[in-house]
Amino acid sequence: MKRIFSGIQPTGEIHIGNYVGAIREWVRLTEDYDCIYCVVDFHALTVEYPVDEMAKRTLDTAIVLIACGLTPEKCKLFIQSAVPEHTELAWIFNCVTPVGDLERMTQFKEKARQHRGNVNMGLMDYPVLQAADILIYKAEFVPVGEDQIQHIELSREIARKFNGRFKPLFPEPQVILSRAPRILGLDGKSKMSKSLNNYIGLLEEERTIWEKLRTAVTDTNRVRRYDPGNPHLCNVFTIHTAFSEKGLLEEIERDCRSARIGCIDCKRMLFERIIEEIAPIRERVEEIKKNVDYVFEVLNTSALKCREIAKRTIDEVREALGLLSLKKG
Ligand code: AMP
Ligand code: TRP
Known about the structure:
The protein has about 325 residues and is mainly alpha-helical. The protein is about 50% helix and about 5% strand. The protein has helices at about 15-30, 55-70, 85-95, 100-105, 105-115, 120-135, 150-165, 205-215, 235-245, 245-255, 265-290, 290-320, and strands at about 5-10, 35-40, 75-80, 140-145, 175.
């Protein structure tokens, strides 16, 4: 089976954009690929964060991933900082990555603007660590949302540079783009994200989810209830496409265009669909929380297996670089 790698930051609350844009796809792909998934805590160090919350956020993220179906029977799931070989490879990749390539990264430019007072080296180096995450396992495919395409392109570039200069050890990883690659936030303008506070959290109370959805921006041309709407200009409809069946979508499209239903009707249907899909996940989260030892066991076992693979790659890389080996024999 071909290998997949992907990662998610432990930013605290996982939102429905992460869920349909990444996690739900990750679960599906476990059927056909050898999958390695990772909570990338080292990536999260690149911006300021509450130190006393990091461990909890990391654990909570892992719990949600398991509850979504990323169980040890289906894939490996571990915490990035438990496999230090990632950072070793990142250093080596630093030495084949032009600074200019990193300065051009959209995410870097955005984050540098958001965190003017703390534009650290890690922030700029973020995509190099990401390339190391993927390539240390020689993964060929990386399932992500649209925002990560540029980073995966850079991973290919880094693999190509290393292979050309030293030894052809690495595949050039390809994106598997999510079927919901870019979910906008409730403002209907920017990408749904934790930092913009325009999200619906997977674990938020039903009441809060409804309040957020109720006030979400729709087709802005539709002002009065009896104005016909255009679903293709409506973010609520886009979110519907990630949660609802074809039949319901066709019905909504028709009834919105003819103004038979209003935005609030459409939102109510979406609310029901979201709750239906995420309720079992929320129940499993509660179950898993009662047995945190199980989570530690899953993460530890995976980390050990991943370290084995990572160490083998590092040995090959060290040799390709021409470093002095102190191993006997
Ligand atoms: P992050 O939370 O930035 O670590 O993202 C984890 C995964 O979720 C990545 O594969 C992202 O591409 C994906 N993702 C994040 N936000 C969205 C969004 N608004 N729509 C679709 N996918 C997303
Ligand atoms: N940068 C990714 C994000 O913000 C997270 C990530 C880190 C990742 N390492 C990765 C994704 C390797 C895919 C592969 O979403």
